[in-house]
């Protein structure tokens, strides 16, 4: 006699009370394999995938898409069976009975129920659903053949498929004959959480931003000189971010209050350096944390940042990667930003904003020369960080980047 297995919402990370079920990958009667992804749950920070605990067949789905669920809540019932039995199609009567037992659960698109769906990230699945692309027919360019959103977009462009999301809910014809379109879509949990945290930061901290500019000639020259040897030696490209991380750590050591946080009427000083690196994803901005960054080499910092970037694109960032952090660096320059005022990442008390490298005419030793310049912005909590400390911290970062040999000598 086949054994029935209950699939429940896993234990959610600390500080997360519930999640939203955003996509079933299987329907009643579908065969599943052990560790194959069954469903996606979206929390305030990440998308969690719930795998099948056994080989078997989906007997019943208990929760519909869009439902808010809590840890331990029953999601589905499986009927355990051998892998060969799981590969056989379910009997129509059994599938119909399972479907009518819980009519609130909608049938899933074919693109989300194929075996290849387990190799696609949340963003890719959502893009496939919107554009009508069959994931089973898309070749994955990600790690271990994982299908990325860019793969789906390329497949949609090749097929000439137009995303469903562009269809307007309402349309009116203007006086000039053009259409005026409006669409209303709910915020994702991540976007809503970002909005909440940004408002909280504005309301709960006395934010102030100080600016400076840095001449990156020495960093660029050093990077160009050793770029090929560095990549050959360490298997990772030498970017700019590792220089900024190391410069910030050095400056944080000189001005430790910039690495502190506020808790009630207490100032919490951190004698370690967990540096958050802001990463933009299709779902919104996330800040994975490079732990004990002061203990890492340039190559290890670059490898950690590259890994976070890849996992962010694939939707496989874990909650543990996003918690904590004592100081954050965000780089708006990759999008072309010349100057901005970053918002604090609570409960941290400071964040450094990098911007676009732009060649500008500068006066050096009485001569006008062209130099690659970048504006830096430090937003800080004025409740615990005085302007003097903020400015000196930013000047220290500037000095270290303009003479990067000091990073190696720690002077």
Task: Describe what this molecule looks like in 3D.
The structure is a single chain. This protein has three domains: 1-108, OB fold (Dihydrolipoamide Acetyltransferase, E2P), CATH 2.40.50; 111-163, Dihydrolipoamide Transferase (Irregular), CATH 4.10.320.10; 189-409, Chloramphenicol acetyltransferase-like domain (Chloramphenicol Acetyltransferase). Helix content is 31%, strand content 26%. The protein is built from twelve helices and 21 strands. The chain is globular, with a radius of gyration of 25 Å. 34% of the residues are buried. The model is unreliable at 83-118 and 161-173 (pLDDT under 50).
Question: What is the strand and helix layout of this fold?
Answer:
Blueprint: E1 4-8, E2 19-24, E3 31-32, E4 37-42, E5 47-51, E6 56-61, E7 68-69, E8 74-80, H1 83-86, H2 92-101, H3 110-113, H4 122-131, H5 149-159, E9 170-173, E10 179-182, H6 189-204, E11 207-215, H7 217-234, H8 241-254, E12 261-263, E13 266-268, E14 275-277, E15 279-281, E16 284-286, E17 289-290, H9 298-314, H10 319-322, E18 327-331, E19 350-354, E20 358-364, E21 367-381, H11 387-402, H12 405-409
Parallel strand pairs: 14-18, 18-19
Antiparallel strand pairs: 1-8, 2-4, 2-7, 3-6, 4-5, 6-8, 9-10, 11-21, 12-13, 14-17, 15-16, 19-21, 20-21
Helix pairs in contact: 4-5, 8-9, 8-11
Helix content range: 25-40%
The residue-averaged pLDDT reads 81
Q: So what's the overall shape?
A: globular
Radius of gyration: 25 Å
- Under the CATH scheme, the architecture of the largest domain is 2-Layer Sandwich
- Biggest sheet: strands, sense, closure? 7 strands, mixed
Question: Helical segment tally?
Answer: 12
Number of strands: 21
**Global structural class:** alpha+beta
Strand content: 25-35%
Q: How many structural units, i.e. domains?
A: 3
CATH topology of the largest domain: Chloramphenicol Acetyltransferase
């Amino acid at each position: 006699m086949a054994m029935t297995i209950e699939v429940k919402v896993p234990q959610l990370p600390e500080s997360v009370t519930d999640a939203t079920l955003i996509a079933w990958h299987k329907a009643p009667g579908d065969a599943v394999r052990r560790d194959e992804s069954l469903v996606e749950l979206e929390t305030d920070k990440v998308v969690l995938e719930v795998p099948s605990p056994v080989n078997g067949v989906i007997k019943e789905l208990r929760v519909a898409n869009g439902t808010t669920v809590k840890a331990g809540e029953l999601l589905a019932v499986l009927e355990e069976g051998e892998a060969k039995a799981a590969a056989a199609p379910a009997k129509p009567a059994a599938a119909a009975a399972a479907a009518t037992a819980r009519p609130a659960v909608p049938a899933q698109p074919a693109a989300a129920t194929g075996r290849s769906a387990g190799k696609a990230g949340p963003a890719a699945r959502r893009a496939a659903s919107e554009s009508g692309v069959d994931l089973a027919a898309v070749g994955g360019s990600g790690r271990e053949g994982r299908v990325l959103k860019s793969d789906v977009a390329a497949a949609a462009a090749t097929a000439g498929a137009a995303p469903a999301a562009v269809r307007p809910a309402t349309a009116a014809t203007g006086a000039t004959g053009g259409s005026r379109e409006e669409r209303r879509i709910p915020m994702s949990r991540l976007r809503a959480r970002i909005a909440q945290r940004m408002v909280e930061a504005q309301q709960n901290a006395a934010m102030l931003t100080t600016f400076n500019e840095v001449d990156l000639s020495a960093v660029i020259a050093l990077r160009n000189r050793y770029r090929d040897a560095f990549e050959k030696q360490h298997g990772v490209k030498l970017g700019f971010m590792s220089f900024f991380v190391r410069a910030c750590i050095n400056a944080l050591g000189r001005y430790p209050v910039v690495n502190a946080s506020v808790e009630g009427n207490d100032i919490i000083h951190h004698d370690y350096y967990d540096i958050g690196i802001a990463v933009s994803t299709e779902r919104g901005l996330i800040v994975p944390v490079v732990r004990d960054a002061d203990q890492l080499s340039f190559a290890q910092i670059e490898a950690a940042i590259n890994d976070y970037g890849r996992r962010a694109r694939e939707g496989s960032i874990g909650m543990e990667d996003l918690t904590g952090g004592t100081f954050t660096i965000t780089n708006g320059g990759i999008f072309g930003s010349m100057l901005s005022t970053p918002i604090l990442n609570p409960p941290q008390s400071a964040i450094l904003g990098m911007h676009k490298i732009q060649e500008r005419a500068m006066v050096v030793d009485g001569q006008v020369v062209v130099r690659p310049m970048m504006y830096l912005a430090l937003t800080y909590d004025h409740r615990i960080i005085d302007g003097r400390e903020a400015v000196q911290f930013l000047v220290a970062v500037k000095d270290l980047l303009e003479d990067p040999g000091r990073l190696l000598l720690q002077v």
